[in-house]
Design goal:
alpha/beta, pyruvate-formate lyase- activating enzyme, Arc Repressor Mutant, subunit A, 2 domains, globular
């Protein structure tokens, strides 16, 4: 029986669909939210009967926008979680929040339910840029959300930022960082824009109507972010994540350590034993499956040894500390050098990887070319 330490719950509802978002989500109005929450309860019950949560340490509620739920619905979601999980024993209980709908009442519900970490999607502090990417909140809403959260006792707060946005400059990125540092939150996730299919931005790009920063400009933005975060005491512990000591995300760390986790909800993914499981995405089909007493599985894949090793490498290299050779050997029974010795040496010569203190990690240059490095650990890379 695998020990599963993390649980993810997907809430696919949004009050507005952003131009860049490709996550499984639907516009909230007219959706069967109450039926969805009941289906979620049924899914957790079925999976927990088969794989009891003996070692659960973290719960993460993402979306979509979990705080798009009404206060009554949010209360119901918390009650469902409490019926399966002792929140008092969790080390970390995170909820994603939109600055525009994080009211005092909703914060009070989350606090009473044992939530101890908030992840607030700011993306930028430039109001015109926020409008350009389809966000409905403004910079003042982020300040208000953080202030209200602190009034209710939340200190472990993450702010999401994006860079390489349409028309964005390095100066604009630095201005957003200035705002971030004024808020003095202990964690920040900074992601570059990736234009995904089935998004507004993808359609605009195909029509030649989306002006994005050049690759060298994007690299400059990332370097500036790394430098400024370090100056302000937010150390980089993963390619896109920065934190004060002790505030690193425990839940996401489980992903990067390539450990098992539960995933519940429409479009959610689980990793149990050596199986990766993907749920049905459409909300109504997800509900229908569970109303019929069936798990809403869209796809299930049993990973081969090679696939597990590949994931161990490219997920582990996302961490600043890199891949521990000793932990790798304990997990698989052989060294990563046994499979990847030549590639690792070549990447060291190109100053993309370093092997120090028993760990294989990205160099600064390697971080800038992370995807190039990761590909080297896939078949045919």
């Amino acid at each position: 029986m695998p020990l599963i330490r993390a649980m993810y719950i997907h809430i696919p509802f949004c009050t507005h669909i952003c131009h860049y978002c490709d996550f499984n989500k639907v516009f909230l109005k007219g959706q069967p939210v109450d039926q969805y929450l009941e289906a979620l309860r049924k899914e957790i019950a079925i999976v927990f009967r088969e794989h009891p949560p003996a070692a659960l340490e973290t719960v993460y509620i993402g979306g979509g926008t979990p705080t798009a739920l009404s206060e009554k619905q949010l209360n119901r979601l918390m009650d469902i979680i409490h019926s399966f999980v002792d929140a008092g024993k969790l080390k970390e209980f995170t909820v994603e929040a939109n600055p525009g709908d994080l009211t005092g009442e909703k914060l009070a519900i989350l606090k009473a339910a044992g939530v101890n970490r908030l992840s607030i999607g700011a993306q930028s502090f430039n109001d015109s840029l926020l409008e350009r990417i389809g966000r409905t909140h403004r910079a003042k809403d982020v300040y208000e959300a953080v202030e209200q959260a602190r009034k209710r006792g939340f200190e472990n707060i993450n702010i999401d930022l994006m860079y390489a946005l349409p028309g964005q400059t390095a100066s604009d990125v630095l201005r957003s960082l200035d705002h971030l540092f004024r808020l003095d939150v202990p964690h920040c996730s900074a992601y570059s824009l990736i234009v995904e299919p089935k998004t507004v931005f993808y359609n605009l790009l195909r029509k030649g109507m989306l002006a994005l920063p050049a690759e060298d400009e994007e690299a400059d933005m990332y370097e500036r972010i790394m430098e400024e975060m370090e100056k302000r005491g937010l150390h980089q512990y993963e390619i896109s994540n920065f934190a004060k000591k002790g505030f690193e995300s425990m839940h996401n760390r489980i992903y990067w350590d390539n450990e098992n986790y539960y995933g519940f909800g429409a479009g959610a993914h689980s990793y149990i034993g050596d199986r990766r499981i993907a749920n049905i995405g459409p909300v109504k089909k997800y509900i229908e499956k569970l109303e019929a007493g069936q798990l809403p599985v869209r796809e299930e894949q049993r990973l081969s040894l090679r696939e597990r090793v590949e994931e161990e490498m490219f997920l582990g290299l996302r961490k600043t500390e890199g891949v521990s050779v000793a932990k790798f050997e304990k997990k698989f029974g052989f060294s990563p050098f046994a499979w990847y010795g030549e590639r690792i040496r070549r990447l060291e010569e190109e100053n993309l990887l370093a092997f120090e203190g028993g760990k294989i990690r990205l160099t600064k240059k390697g971080k800038l070319l992370g995807n190039v490095v990761f590909l080297q650990f896939l078949v045919g890379g």
